[in-house]
Write a structure and sequence with these properties.
It is a single chain. The protein has about 300 residues and is an alpha/beta fold. The protein has two domains: about 5-120 and about 270-295, Rossmann fold; about 125-260, 3-Layer(aba) Sandwich (Isopropylmalate Dehydrogenase), CATH 3.40.718. Helix content is about 40%, strand content about 20%. The protein is globular and about 60 Å long. The two termini are about 20 Å apart.
């Protein structure tokens, strides 16, 4: 099982090179990241966008893009459509966001006739390497679904489980987070946590062990779990944390990144191909790790 970001990078090396297509590729940070991944022998690159701007940015970065496939399209909407079509047709294995808003990309990805939809919703899966935890910690969904219902949470869990399985964890442990560890009918998050646990028991959510509701402390700290009398396969040893809503998720991941200085990466799962949708606030290594993660995982 992969336990560090460096191991994610090592797992990519030696595999068949995946092709990453960037939609609206005239973005300095993205070009830097895909160039680094290409230079390391991890990926092949297709860039869709304003060719002149791509060359101008590459020149400023002293990047040679002559070995990349470049599809000229100055209209952003058309460039997104081309990139999505390439991913849908099998001409590319991974779709990456360039100089566009995430919503603009996802609206085309989710087009019911010509997009990359599956029978699951899309969700963001963040992966964090912390000095204070003994393995990689997955957090979902801190980026896309605002207030998911029970059915959506089941999809979100399955997406995260599939990413974890891609990294060699055959049966990841999922902690469904809430403010308390017991079911309280007045707190919907606790009710849905219990339902998700039972759904996993009955095989409705596959290849994982789910327990909840669990507090953040007893999900990742065995001493805290035992102190509260919680004994389960998940408590104190979670691989995946499911947050109750986007606000809790966003606060959690920013705490991990900015206060705990975690190394991180992330993908959007649930489409026919993995999506790399990084933030402009993400540093260079986060983008590089995210590309590597996307090339390992199955959609």
């Amino acid at each position: 099982m992969v336990k560090t970001m460096d191991e994610i990078m090592e797992n990519v090396k030696g595999n068949r090179k995946k092709r990453v297509v960037v939609a609206v590729a005239q973005d300095e940070d993205v070009l830097h990241s895909v160039h680094e991944a290409h230079k390391l022998g991890l990926i092949e690159v297709s860039l869709v966008g304003d060719k002149k701007k791509i060359y101008d940015i590459a020149g400023g970065l002293k990047i040679d893009v002559s070995g990349y496939e470049i599809v000229k399209e100055v209209d952003d909407s058309k460039a997104i459509r081309i990139a999505v079509d390439m991913a849908g047709s099998g001409a590319a294995d991974v779709l990456m966001k360039g100089m566009i808003q995430t919503a603009d990309l996802l609206s085309v990805v989710l087009d019911k006739d010509h997009g990359l939809r599956t029978n699951r919703i899309l969700s963001h899966v963040g992966v964090y390497e912390l000095q204070s935890y003994h393995k990689l910690l997955f957090v979902t969904d801190a980026g896309i679904n605002i207030a998911p219902d029970l059915k959506q949470k089941a999809d979100i869990v399955q997406n995260a489980v599939n990413v974890s399985v891609s990294l060699g964890n055959e049966r990841p442990k999922v902690a469904v987070l809430a403010a308390i560890e017991v079911v309280n009918p007045s707190m919907q998050a606790t009710v849905e946590a219990a339902a998700l646990s039972k759904m996993a028991d009955r095989g409705q959510i596959k290849n994982c062990i789910i327990d909840g509701p669990l507090g953040m402390d007893n999900a990742i700290n065995m001493e805290a779990a035992l102190h509260k009398g919680i004994r389960s396969e998940v408590a104190g040893d979670a691989d995946i944390l499911l947050t109750p809503d986007i606000e809790a998720g966003n606060i959690l991941v920013k705490t991990l990144s900015f206060l705990n200085k975690a190394k991180s990466c992330g993908v959007v799962a649930g489409a026919r191909v993995p999506l790399v949708v990084t933030s402009r606030a993400d540093d260079h290594m986060t983008k590089l790790y995210s590309i590597a993660l996307a090339t390992i995982m199955k959609a």
